[in-house]
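User: We ran a pulldown and think these components assemble together. Before we commit to crystallization trials, I'd like a predicted model of the whole complex to look at. Sequences follow.
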Amino acid sequence: AQKVTQAQTEISVVEKEDVTLDCVYETRDTTYYLFWYKQPPSGELVFLIRRNSFDEQNEISGRYSWNFQKSTSSFNFTITASQVVDSAVYFCALSEAGRDDKIIFGKGTRLHILP
Amino acid sequence: EPEVTQTPSHQVTQMGQEVILRCVPISNHLYFYWYRQILGQKVEFLVSFYNNEISEKSEIFDDQFSVERPDGSNFTLKIRSTKLEDSAMYFCASSDVSGSGNTIYFGEGSWLTVV
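Assistant: Here's a predicted model for the assembly, 230 residues in total across the polymer chains.
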């Protein structure tokens, strides 16, 4: 069965520090997709990244980077030089090939960036 | 940038009343979804809709729920007889293709409070 685990319920860091959000997933499929979404205090879900299971290259987008490791079933998200505006709940999610209309979300990690 | 829009942003209703949540998906998208997030919990899949019919639904989506695309632009979620436990944020989402891990874009959510 599919499962996404975000073990960190809540993290607080001081502005400008780097922070890594952990995500571990379970799936029986060999083809699947991983996502990260951001939910700021206003409540909307903001898409950050989608990665397919065949692409293990790490990705960097500005201050955001993602480390996908199939060997450990992890898809961790790092924010470099954090800013107060990064404060939000971050969800890691998974969908299996052929069932892309059903995304399984983790419970989320609430990130507080302290000024 | 095109976006999914939802109305109302917040609705308070009495237990037992019918509620209709409305969504306007991104215009060229063909796949539509509803997800739910109970306060402080993870986002959960409710239903997916394509070609004027439900393609998949979760166990949450019981007989009191229904979806409709009445006029080619709106996509609605109806809850026939609301219960206290239906209080949640309801997210509409859409995507232009499926079967390839395509990005699903979420609306800003409709917060339903049942009293």
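The CA atoms of residues 33 and 48 of chain B lie 4 Å apart. That may be worth checking against your pulldown data before setting up trials.

User: Thanks, that helps.
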